[in-house]
Amino acid sequence: MAVALPELPLPALVLNHAAEHGDEVALRQKHGDVWQELTWADYAARVRNGAAGLAGLGLGVPLHTAVLADNSVDWLVAQMATGLVGGVPLGCYPTSSTPDLLHALGHADVAVLFCQNDAFLTKVLPIRAQLPTLKRIVMFNPASEAVGTEGVISLASLEAQGAAALTRDPALLDAAIATLSLDQVGLIVYTSGSTGAPKAAMLTYRNMRATVQGFGELLHFGPGAQMLSYLPLCHIAEQAMTNFAPLYSRSTVSIGGGLPALIEDMRAVRPTYFSGVPRVWLRFEEAIRKSGATGVDALALVGLDRAAVATSGAASLPVETLRFFRSLGLELLELYGMTENCSMMTIHRPGRVVPGTVGVALDTVELKIAADGEILVRGESVFAGYYKNPSASAEIVVDGWLHTGDLGAIENGQLRIVDRKKDLMITDGGKNIAPAEIEALMRTSPLIAEFVLVAEGRKYVTALVQPDPAGFGVADYAALIADPDTADRLAEEVHRLNDDLPRVAQIKRLLVLPQPLASDEGDLTPTLKLRRFKVHQRYAAEIEAIYAGTAGFDVSTRRK
Fold first, then answer.
1. What element of type H or E holds 224?
2. Residues 353 and 215 in one domain
């Protein structure tokens, strides 16, 4: 049964925790080798000052703000301060290009941009004249001469102005706080764009609360729990684990150096719960296998020795990896979620883990499979729609049911994801091919880092393959793909894995990618999901050459 939670939006929770548990540690952030702590009282004071500073700008209601920065306490202060005055924040990926920023900031009518430093500011200044709604840029770590010029201020200055305003009028924010409600939109999150252009999903505070009701107790959130924030806060998964669940459960969040410093930060924090994408789990597995450690020693090596439970999401986790960590004693569960449902929808339950599935629906979510195989969900966690896109909103939510766009099946009471509905490929012979399942199978090979299927409208199935240098025991990608033995070994591996596929889905030809797929090229989303349609577009000429027989190689004619 879902646990009862306070009927308060996130910013109000910060204030309540400060009033009732002000001396407890809310946040920790690494500066160099030192982890600096912020109590709930400290956190609330900064949020109130920031909110008063925003109110003093006189930019109207509802105020839309955006954050362009790496994860930090400042990021959270900016988000909560915006919410406290009834505004709506959104996050921009730190890796966003200038055109990406132009689209997001313009489309979302952003009036205030919170920007980390000069490196991020240089992406924005060239397009500022094209953003008529953008009135202020607030710098977290200013080092630029731009600060002090028209419309550019520091966060410290904004908070100081807010503190002064609150000194003059202690009731300045009372009216805004009194009007906060669970049904307000509290966050805009842009979808990953794995199958098309990103859309701006509007999430209410009720959505956030309902999600935490469904998973908070299951994942051991509560006072004393320790979390590590490391994925970009503009993503729904990190929002759920850094903001939604910790605020409703009064848990402590530590903010480290992101993915580059992940294992080091994990060892320092030793979180009681951890959520990772498959690439993270594969990285942990590689480190443990190289060390030769076993049991709790292996988990302590990557900072997981205190984790009562851990999860994997965003893409399919190789079954061998799931079994590896569970053999070490870690309660590793797979989950399934999406932005439009405010993150999680299903999860394995302890003692009922079926590899290859993503568990059962949360207690707060209804789930069913439509006649065409699409997964539908319903509940209070279903989002409020896409900003300025009513037609897409009406298309994805029908009679309260969220159409996920994913195809699935219920097997032994557990949900199995088949593929994205839009990604389903039909050969020229009319046979349906689900690429994600096949690609996931191929990526179980240590020789294969990425695998991109091609079959739509074709006589047979081919693929673009990115070999994994580590699996070949080398470091240089260019040298690896230049070695004739690489193609032989890849063909042998795919030939072996083909035996696990029906004949119509077996791969006939391969082409080795000339360079690794990358998010900055559009091949992957910022959360490292494959953008198959983008890869197909980028390598359209090479794909035609594969079928013409002038590029790539046959799997069946290579060494066996």
1. none
2. yes
Query: Which residues have C-beta within 8 Å of that of residue 432, sequence separation ≥ 6?
Result: 424, 425, 426
Q: What is the mean pLDDT of the chain?
A: 90
Rounded CA gap, 487 and 477, in Å? 13
**Does 419 map to a domain?**
no
Give the tokens for residue 201.
């999903």
CA distances to 75, 89, 224 from 151, rounded to whole Å, are: 19, 19, 41
Task: Please name which of 448, 469, 436, 458 lies closest in space to residue 543, comparing C-alpha atoms.
Answer: 458
DSSP-assigned states of every residue in 439-486: HHHHTTSTTEEEEEEE-TT-SSEEEEEEE-HHHHT-S-HHHHHHSHHH
- How far apart CA 104 and CA 427 sit, in angstroms, is 37
Contacts with 556 (C-beta within 8 Å, 6 or more apart), sequence order: 495, 508
Residues in contact with 366: Cβ distance below 8 Å, sequence separation at least 6, in sequence order: 377, 378, 379
How far is residue 480's CA from residue 5's CA, in Å, rounded to a whole number?
54
Mean pLDDT for 132-154 is 87
User: 260 preceded by cis ω (within 30°)?
Assistant: no
Q: Are 350 and 308 contacting, i.e. CB atoms less than 8 angstroms apart?
A: no
Taking each helix axis from N to C end, the angle separating 278-291 and 319-327, rounded to the nearest 10 degrees, works out to 50
DSSP letters, 511-536, are EE-SS---GGGTSB-TT--B-HHHHH
Shared domain for 168 and 19, answered yes or no, is yes
pLDDT in tens, 406-417: 889 998 889 998
Look at residue 103 and tell me if it is in a domain: yes
Q: What CATH number should be reported for the domain holding residue 38?
A: 3.40.50.12780
Task: Answer for the pair 446, 414: CB distance below 8 angstroms, yes or no.
Answer: no
H helical segments located in 56-127: 73-84, 98-107, 118-124
Same domain (yes/no): 253, 175: no
> Looking at residue 476, which CATH number applies to its domain?
3.30.300.30
**Judgement on whether residues 249 and 339 belong to the same structural domain of the protein:** yes
**pTM of the predicted protein model:** 0.83
- Is the residue at 374 inside a domain? no
**Look-up: residue for tokens 């193609």?**
487
- The domain in which residue 472 lies consists of 424-554
Give how far Cα 134 sits from Cα of 25, 138, 350, Å.
Answer: 35, 11, 48
Report residue 195's pLDDT band, with 50, 70 and 90 as the boundaries.
Answer: low
Give the pLDDT of residue 100.
87
Percent of the chain's residues with pLDDT above 70: 96
Which among 386, 14, 371 is positioned nearest to 200, based on CA atoms?
A: 386
Distances (CA, A) of 83 to 8, 181, 293, 559: 12, 11, 46, 61
C-alpha torsion 140→11→96→143, nearest 10: 0
